[in-house]
Here is the input.
Amino acid sequence: MDKFTNVTVIKKANVYFDGKVTSRTVLFANGEKKTLGIMMPGNYEFGTDKAEVMEILAGELEVLLPDESIWKSIKGGEEFFVKANAKFSLKVTSITDYCCSYIND
Here is the structure.
């Protein structure tokens, strides 16, 4: 999906890691929630409340998923899944544009 229609966008940015990671929240009429964001190069650790699908639109990174010991390379056009109530680590190697979809139970 290249664009979203009939959505509500929260104007206030979500800002993490001294502004190196930012996103905006997009809400859908059916209750679905996504964030659209940018990550600058760096190392980050995130936690999840809900399961997430991270779609990488552009850029490159490595991800260390929960319960795994091998970093996985991800680039624009690829995605990865993170289970709920987990932590995952990222090594962002180039400016990365992403869309995070939150999975409702």
